[in-house]
Amino acid sequence: MNAAGWTLMILGAALLAVAALGLLRLPDALSRQHAATKAATLALGVMLAGLALLQPAPAWWIRIGALVAVLAATVPIASHALASAAAARADD
Amino acid sequence: MTVLTEVFLGVALLLVLEGLRRLPGTANRLVAVDLLSACALAACLLAAARSGHTAFLDVALGFALIAFLATVCWAFALRAEAQQENAP
Fold first, then answer.
1. Total structural domains in chain A?
2. pLDDT tens digits for A25-47?
3. SS3 of A90, please?
4. Which residues are CB-neighbours of B8 under 8 A, at least 6 positions away?
5. What's the domain range around B48?
6. Measured between alpha carbons, how far is A81 from B17 in angstroms, rounded to an integer?
7. Do A33 and B34 touch (CB under 8 A)?
8. How open is the CA angle A53-A57-A61, to the nearest 5 degrees?
9. In chain A, which among 45-74 make CB contacts under 8 A with chain B?
10. For chain B, what is the domain count?
11. A90 min Cα distance to partner chain B (Å)
């Protein structure tokens, strides 16, 4: 249980590093936000799953569930707003 | 082995800060700031895992909401400005 939880935490942090690498490597703002927001959502989800394995108690699971719900509701909206801003300012 | 989490998180933070320094234009910087807030959320989760206190998850919840509001407000402001510039 412990090893699996920490494996998921490490995997999530590595995914975040890949998202940051995508921010540096991709050519324009639209594709940069595509790399950043989606990979970051996956990374945080994987880290939360690892945390749920590390701390098997209802007090943790309630908060983890709330965080997953908040992230799943807000990140796509923020990503859409970022994309529309990037598309409107395609020149810079 | 679990220290790898901190290592990867530090690499991600350094890459995001380098992006913030190097990338041109406001829209790119806004994307970098959004990714920076994702890094801060990951740091909150890591602190919760290390210390065993659920309080860090409450902090992460509040921070996720504030980061969402900030990103959406800045993105709408940027878009409104761009539309004003494009209009004659």
1. 1
2. 888 888 888 888 999 999 999 99
3. coil
4. A10, A13, A14, A16, A17
5. 3-86
6. 22
7. yes
8. 70
9. 47-48, 50-51, 54-55, 59-60, 63-64, 66-67, 70-71, 74
10. 1
11. 9
**Neighbour-count burial of B87, counting CB atoms closer than 10 A to its CB (0-12 exposed, 13-18 middle, 19+ buried):** exposed
Instruction: Return left, alpha or beta for A34; rule: phi > 0 is left, psi -120 to 50 is alpha, else beta.
Output: alpha
Instruction: Name the B residues in 56-75 with CB < 8 Å from any A CB.
Output: 57-58, 60-61, 64-65, 67-68, 71-72, 74-75
pTM of the model: 0.90
Question: What ipTM does the predicted assembly reach?
Answer: 0.89
- CA–CA separation, A21 and B82 (whole Å): 28
Domain residue limits at A22: 2-88
Segments in chain A forming alpha helices (H): 2-25, 29-54, 58-88
